[in-house]
Design brief:
single chain; 82 residues; mainly alpha; globular
Length: 82
C-alpha cells in the first residue's frame, strides 16, 4: 500500500475512531493536526518523496529550506541504539 493510500485510509477511519471515543475533531482543528502528524511520521520513516511533498504543502514551516543552524533538541550522549 502506498503512503498516499495509507493517508487516505487514515483520513477515512479518523472520524469513525473519534466518534467512538467521543472526540470532536473540529475543536482546535484536531483532525487536521492528527493528519499532519501522520504525514510527519511518514516523512521520518521514508525521507524525501510524496509524503515529504505533501507535508511541504500542509505545513511549510516544518520544512524550511532556509535553516542554517542545526539545534540538537536532546543534547548529550546518544543511546547505543542510535
Amino acid at each position: 500500500m502506498t503512503d498516499a493510500a495509507k493517508l487516505r485510509v487514515f483520513q477515512e477511519q479518523l472520524p469513525f475512531c473519534a466518534g467512538v471515543a467521543s472526540i470532536d475533531l473540529a475543536i482546535d482543528d484536531l483532525g487536521a493536526e492528527l493528519t499532519e502528524m501522520f504525514t510527519v511520521v511518514n516523512v521520518v520513516r521514508h525521507g524525501e518523496g510524496p509524503s515529504c511533498e505533501r507535508l511541504r504543502v500542509m505545513a511549510p514551516t516544518l520544512l524550511s529550506d532556509t535553516a542554517v543552524d542545526y539545534v540538537d533538541l536532546v543534547p548529550g550522549p546518544r543511546p547505543p541504539g542510535e
